[in-house]
Amino acid sequence: MKISHIEHIGIAVKSLDEAIPFYESLLGLKCYNIEEVKEQKVKTAFFKVGQTKIELLESTDAEGPIGKFLEKRGEGVHHIAYAVENIEEQLKTAEENGIRLIDKTPRKGAEGLDIAFLHPKSTFGVLTELCENKNK
Ligand code: ZN
Fold first, then answer.
1. 109-131 per-position pLDDT tens digit
2. What is the tens place of the pLDDT at every residue in 39-91?
3. Domain positions in the chain
4. 96 CA → ligand 1 middle, Å
5. Which of 21, 79, 119, 134 has its CA 20 to 30 A from that of 73?
C-alpha cells in the first residue's frame, strides 16, 4: 500500500460539548469544523495538528457504530485513518492479501473524503480507515 500520512485519528466521546473545550482550552487546538454524518449516526468535530487531524466522534443514536462502541468500550481511540491515493486499488490489494474489509467499495465520509474501513480482526485490533481526498 502507498500511505502518505496519518489523515486523522478518530476518538469516540460521549459529548462534543464536554470534549471540545478540553481540546481548545487545554491543548490549544482550534475546532474548525463540526459536521453530522447521518449515515454513520455520528456528529464529528475536527482539529488540525500539523497535517493530521483529530476527529472527535459523538454518537447521535445508541444503535449506531459509535453508540455501540461507547457502550462496549467506553470513550477512547476508535480508529486510525491513513491517507492513500487510489483508494479502490488499495482496497483490492488489502483484500488480495487476506485482509477483511468492512467496506468493499469506498463511501463518502466527513469532509467529502472517500473512505473505507478495514476490519480490526485483520489489523491487530485497530479499526483502520483508508481515505482519499479526491477534491484536491
Ligand atoms: Zn475517520
1. 888 899 999 999 999 999 999 99
2. 899 999 999 999 999 999 999 999 999 999 999 999 999 999 999 999 999 99
3. 3-132
4. 23
5. 21
Q: Is 68 helix (H, G, I), strand (E, B) or coil?
A: helix
Terminus-to-terminus CA distance in the chain, angstroms? 20
Q: If you measure from the C-alpha of residue 82 to the centroid of ligand 1, how many angstroms do you get, rounded to a whole number? A: 9
**3 Cα–ligand 1 center, Å:** 15
Q: Which CATH architecture has domain 3-132?
A: Roll (3.10)
- The position carrying cell 470513550 is 75
Kindly give the distance from the C-alpha atom of residue 79 to the centroid of ligand 1, in angstroms, as a whole number: 7
pTM above 0.90, yes or no: yes
Residue 59 burial (CB count, 10 A) = 22
| Distance from the alpha carbon of residue 88 to the mean position of ligand 1, in angstroms | 17
Measured in angstroms, how far is the CA atom of residue 59 from the centroid of ligand 1? 13
